[in-house]
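User: Predict the complex with adenosine monophosphate.
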Amino acid sequence: MIVAGDAGSMRSALTGAPRPLGFVPTMGALHAGHLSLVREAAKSCATVVASTFVNPMQFGAGEDFDRYPRDERGDRTKLADCGVFALFAPTPATMYPPGFSTIVDVGDLATTFEGAQRPTHFRGVTTVVTKLLHVVAPDTVYLGQKDAQQAAVLRKLVRDLDFPVKVRTVPTFREEDGLAMSSRNVYLTREARTAAPSFHAALERMLRELRAGCDAVQARERAKPVLRAPGTWEYLDLVDPDTFAPLETLRPPACVIGAVRFDGTRLIDNLLVAS
Ligand code: AMP
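Assistant: Here is the predicted structure with adenosine monophosphate placed in the model:
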């Protein structure tokens, strides 16, 4: 597997690579959820490229940038074992050299839910993904449904700025007990890890109530108590999966979205109801 640390060497490595080219952007600390994106890409792409970059621009002040899990050697082994052709693993100084100041912002969609809790988060994501798409120039980019609003923001970025790339969203990969895999799960205390699957159970309860005919307000009130201590809710809602506009009742496509805190650890998850 080729490993490139800057845009020039990445572009040279990809010159003449067989098409279609699939791209899986990540922040590293790879788990089976990330690798499911790589495997999905390998099904329909002749060349698969991944990136591992813990992007400082998408972390707010006081968030976990410094302690975000990192495992460069493990990541390389996992990606090579999955047949990835090239890895782009730049440093913050390479991506954001002195004088860097351009910001890409998709507007209102980046200001609700995750954007309300983390006001500068999505512009960090859209700015770095714009750079990554320019460097890798993939035919298809693979994103996880796990980060539903991020996927919606990036679909909008690609549409609004005419990137010649298809966006494929891959279902959330879960632990056997239902907890969505996340690099941040390693932060959970034993007590929190035991209670954390109740988050997914609460999302499922909300969806069952909606399917039984409850409106979103009733369904939320019935689902919220399913979350076990020490979990606390930040939000639990029913939204349109593209605009993230709240929905009063279930009308596919729709997405039940939630964010919780377990002590200091913030988790997000969702259930998509396709049309
Ligand atoms: P991250 O490294 O957490 O920024 O995630 C990189 C990509 O992997 C994003 O497109 C995520 O949505 C996706 N991803 C993260 N966790 C999962 C999961 N459990 N299942 C599927 N995709 C995931």
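The pocket of adenosine monophosphate is lined by residues 26-27, 33-34, 36-37, 143-144, 146-147, 170, 172-173, 180-183 (CB under 6 Å).
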